[in-house]
């Protein structure tokens, strides 16, 4: 096994036992990026020089016994997350020259303990997409089949982890942007409860749904990373005041007696791939063998989740992206007056999907349509949340497919936005409700493409999710 193929746990053990150094581990990851990124396009920016310097510092910490769980481990970051001194474009040309003066809180926590940042991952611009084809730096290819998409919007992060270009990645999930690409690429992708991780330093898409989480090779690694990045942040008023549990403490406990719900609406969905359904069924059977009590449950408002999501998100987009005008930071286009400057900067700096969502959101928020669209969507959002609240009185967890289908071809759905939106149909309900969910690799279909199964928990129920995920994952 090559060093870059190690999990966090394995790399941690190797570094502490002095089998190899952080510099050696980092060099192998950088070599893999050089060899593969031209085909996969998972990275927009590679931090070769600074990564090696950070690795040397990490080796010093390890030698002196001052190390932390993530010291010396090479990681990558979605480009819609700010990194001090490292270009952060959000995959949009309007920020092509933007270098943040500060780290996002979650990134600062990792870098302060000696984590090694190897680069910034390609993504759908500002998180707008489900296939990573809406990046202005080109689409990301699936490392299992370069003709297929990596999923979105955190496709670059998922592809980088799956292709062993880094040991793990920090990404962002608004409506499924961590879980869906993790499923497509055969990685573990975790969305925590809303408020569990700080959003400070994240380029905002839809502030009431945005969350930050890890994409890793195993569930254990996801739990380990969460234990290091979660917690209250005075810079983000939506973070929880509760102390962060030790997510690894109970991860190996057996599942006997755990109540698992099978939401029927997810399995009645038109367009659900037969092999995805079969793989999910096998995982459900495995849970029964492990002593779980499995029963069918209902989330009756699930069918409205995509419609709610694609009203609320554009509305919040139209507000959040107003700060990108070519004046305060980013790329500026010349114009004969202020309007020309704004219009020119946005016309050339935003891809089509970003423009589409801004227009939809502005329309839905306008005086004549606010009640009919935005207010109605918020009302239905409350009903969706209540569905989850009620079902979690009966069961501990839910299990569903992560996506109704495996990775599709690059360009296959690009001209059909509605078909692309449906790629999030399995993952958006949990996001709307603000509950945690994990996609675990669960095997491959007959074409050799990975398939993920999603485990959804109650709000702040991350520990149970990790317990189940560690028993179900099938490492490809």
UniProtKB/TrEMBL annotation:
Sample GO molecular function, one term: ATP binding
Catalytic activity: L-glutamyl-tRNA(Gln) + L-glutamine + ATP + H2O = L-glutaminyl-tRNA(Gln) + L-glutamate + ADP + phosphate + H(+)
Any one cellular-component term (Gene Ontology): glutamyl-tRNA(Gln) amidotransferase complex
Entry keywords, A to Z: ATP-binding, Ligase, Nucleotide-binding, Protein biosynthesis, Transferase
Keyword field contains ATP-binding: yes
Enzyme Commission number(s): 6.3.5.7
Top-tier EC class: ligase
Domain Amidase: residue ranges: 24-465
Domain of life the protein comes from: Bacteria
GO biological process: translation
Positions of the catalytic residues: 78, 153, 177
Function, as annotated: Allows the formation of correctly charged Gln-tRNA(Gln) through the transamidation of misacylated Glu-tRNA(Gln) in organisms which lack glutaminyl-tRNA synthetase. The reaction takes place in the presence of glutamine and ATP through an activated gamma-phospho-Glu-tRNA(Gln).
PANTHER family: GLUTAMYL-TRNA(GLN) AMIDOTRANSFERASE SUBUNIT A, MITOCHONDRIAL (PTHR11895:SF7), TRANSAMIDASE (PTHR11895)
HAMAP family (alphabetical): GatA (MF_00120)
Quaternary data: Heterotrimer of A, B and C subunits.
Entry's family note: Belongs to the amidase family. GatA subfamily.
Name of protein: Glutamyl-tRNA(Gln) amidotransferase subunit A
Naturally occurring in which organism (per UniProt): Candidatus Magasanikbacteria bacterium RIFOXYD1_FULL_40_23
Gene: gatA
């Amino acid at each position: 096994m090559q060093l870059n193929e190690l999990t966090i746990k394995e790399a941690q053990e190797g570094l502490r036992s002095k089998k190899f150094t952080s510099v050696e581990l980092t060099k192998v990851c950088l070599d893999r990026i050089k060899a593969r990124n031209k085909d996969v396009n998972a990275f927009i920016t590679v931090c070769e020089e600074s990564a090696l310097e950070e690795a040397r510092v990490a080796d010093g910490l390890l030698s002196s016994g001052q190390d932390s769980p993530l010291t010396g481990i090479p990681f990558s970051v979605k480009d819609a997350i700010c990194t001090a001194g490292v270009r952060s474009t959000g995959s949009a040309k309007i920020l092509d020259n933007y270098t943040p003066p500060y780290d996002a809180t979650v990134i600062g926590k990792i870098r302060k303990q000696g984590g090694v940042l190897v680069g910034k991952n390609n993504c759908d611009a500002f998180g707008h997409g489900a296939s990573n084809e809406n990046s202005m730096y080109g689409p990301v290819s699936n490392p299992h089949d370069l003709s297929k998409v990596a999923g979105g919007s955190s496709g670059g992060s998922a592809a980088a982890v799956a292709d062993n270009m880094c040991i793990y990645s920090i990404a962002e999930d608004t409506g499924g942007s961590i879980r869906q690409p993790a499923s497509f690429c055969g990685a573990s992708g975790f969305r925590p409860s809303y408020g569990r991780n700080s959003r400070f330093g994240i380029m905002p898409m839809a502030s009431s749904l945005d969350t930050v989480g890890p994409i890793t090779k195993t569930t254990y690694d996801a739990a380990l990373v969460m234990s290091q990045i979660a917690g209250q942040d005075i810079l983000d008023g939506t973070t929880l005041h509760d102390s962060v549990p030790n997510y690894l403490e109970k991860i190996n406990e057996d599942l006997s007696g755990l109540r698992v719900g099978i939401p029927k609406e997810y399995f009645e969905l038109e367009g659900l791939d037969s092999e995805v359904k079969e793989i999910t069924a096998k995982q459900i059977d495995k849970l029964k063998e492990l002593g779980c009590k499995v029963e069918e449950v209902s989330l009756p408002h699930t069918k409205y989740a995509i419609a709610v999501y694609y009203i609320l998100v554009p509305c919040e987009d139209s507000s959040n992206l107003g700060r990108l005008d070519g004046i305060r930071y980013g790329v500026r286009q010349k114009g004969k007056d202020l309007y020309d400057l704004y219009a020119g900067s946005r016309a050339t700096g935003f891809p089509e999907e970003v423009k589409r969502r801004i227009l939809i959101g502005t329309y839905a928020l306008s005086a004549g349509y606010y009640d009919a669209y935005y207010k109605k969507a918020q009302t239905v959002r409350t009903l969706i949340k209540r569905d989850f609240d009620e079902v979690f009185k009966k069961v501990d967890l839910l299990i569903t497919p992560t996506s109704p289908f495996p990775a599709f071809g690059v360009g296959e759905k690009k001209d059909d936005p509605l078909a692309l939106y449906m790629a999030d149909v399995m993952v958006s309900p949990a996001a709307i409700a603000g509950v945690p969910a994990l996609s675990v690799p669960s095997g491959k279909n007959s074409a050799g493409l990975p398939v993920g199964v999603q485990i959804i928990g109650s709000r702040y129920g991350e520990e149970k999710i990790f317990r189940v995920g560690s028993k179900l994952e099938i490492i490809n």
